[in-house]
Design a protein that fits this description.
Elements lengths: L11 H27 L7 E3 L5 E4 H13 L7 E2 L2 E2 L6 H22 L8 H16 L3 E2 L4 E3 L2 H19 L15 H19 L25 H27 L26 H5 L1 H26 L15 H32 L18 H12 L4 H18 L7 H4 L8
Parallel strand pairs: 1-6
Antiparallel strand pairs: 1-2, 3-4, 5-6
Helix pairs in contact: 2-6, 3-4, 3-5, 3-6, 5-6, 9-10, 10-11, 10-12, 11-12
The structure holds protoporphyrin IX containing FE.
Protoporphyrin IX containing FE binds next to helix 9 and helix 10.
Length: 430
Amino acid sequence: MSTDPSEKPLSSWWRHAVILVMVLGFGLLTVVTVLTYTNAPPIPERVIDSAGATLFTRENVEHGQEVFLKYGLMEHGSLWGHGAYLGPDYSAEYLHRLAEVARDTLARERHGLPYAQLDPDTATSLDAGVHRLLKENRYDPATGTLRFSPAEAAAWEVQKTEWAEYFSGDKPAPGLPAKYIRDPHDLADLNSYFAWAAWATVANRPGKDYSYTNNWPYEPAVGNRPSASTYLWSALSLVTLLVGLGAVLFAFGRFDFLGWHGSSKAGHAHDSAFSRWTLTPSQKAVGLYFGVVALLFLLQTLAGGALAHYRVESGAFYGIDLARFLPYNLLRTFHLQLAIFWIATSWVAGGLFLAPIVGGPSPVGSGRASSPCSWPSPSSSSGASAASGWGSTTGSGSSGSGLGTRARSTWTSDASGSSCWRSASWAGSS
Ligand code: HEM
């Protein structure tokens, strides 16, 4: 088959398929985004105890979330299952302690004994009482007030101390430096944030028999078990995945390796492209990009290795207290950012490499693609990673657009390129 695309125009099915995928994909994303916001659990204006005293407010919850983000806790543990896996799932952990404190509070209230000393029958009936108590939604949308039962208020109070000890005690949390969060207001608000997040996992949605998080996490101590729709949607998503894979494989086999012609006249759409090709200067120069990719990949896997090592020795790295220099959350950020950078660089490099094959002759001066100012450099990657690691979005944003600018300027006219790249302008002939 010819490598010159002008000889045989691409099937219009490619365009149709792209439009269909874009419309369906973005349509679905829009629906899901709207549903995410409309179905989100409410953040109460005030959370009060049974006597009407304010325990914490909406501001406390929102500030607690800022603390959570500021200290990169999403890269250490998780919340509602989203995040990293060295630390705990904070909402699940809070929920479990809530169950323990609630059991004890109720056992003392009703039987004058700690839960552990109840006989099995009394304990079972008390468990059912704990489920009912925590599943009941006492949020009043009219006033924006959520009323905590005495057991919930006690759990909030107890955990204030426990989470403060976890983050600011002498014994460091796994993978974090000792005394990581010191401000008592930050710590108190973090606890309120966890309290709200845990409430949303157990209190039933209005008019439903499952919680705002569809009974996630599984926690029998509070009566959180998978709902019928959990089974249904899990099964459906698996079926959708398998049907989707089958459809792709069917189309691939049926339409001549996606040449879309549906006959066996032609072989693979690009079968001979590589066998008859000698490298152009621009393709040779792209080797440098792949060098950058290899370096970034190496750094990423080294970071991955160090992350994995935290599982084995969370307080030391072969005798070095790594958490003081590269705490788990920061290192995990680097690990993920470096992946983005080497994958982005590979895309640019792949595009540069394939362009002469797909588009024909090489540009004049294409060998100058190796000019250092046209590289997505490791320094820009690590700089952006470092910046984002410390909470700045500017670093990664500017580097990302830098990559985009370079890719664009390479394949459009010199007028849109950077001054550096203009010298190797596209002339359309070799
Ligand atoms: C030697 C190689 C690697 C090792 C030892 C490694 C190790 C790890 C570890 C320990 C985590 C942290 C899990 C957590 O706490 O959330 C992680 C997360 C992750 N790694 Fe790697 N990794 C390696 C290579 C890679 C590569 C090549 C990629 C991508 C191209 C990658 C992408 C990711 C991603 C996306 C996450 C986040 C996963 C999530 O949040 O669910 N890793 N890796």
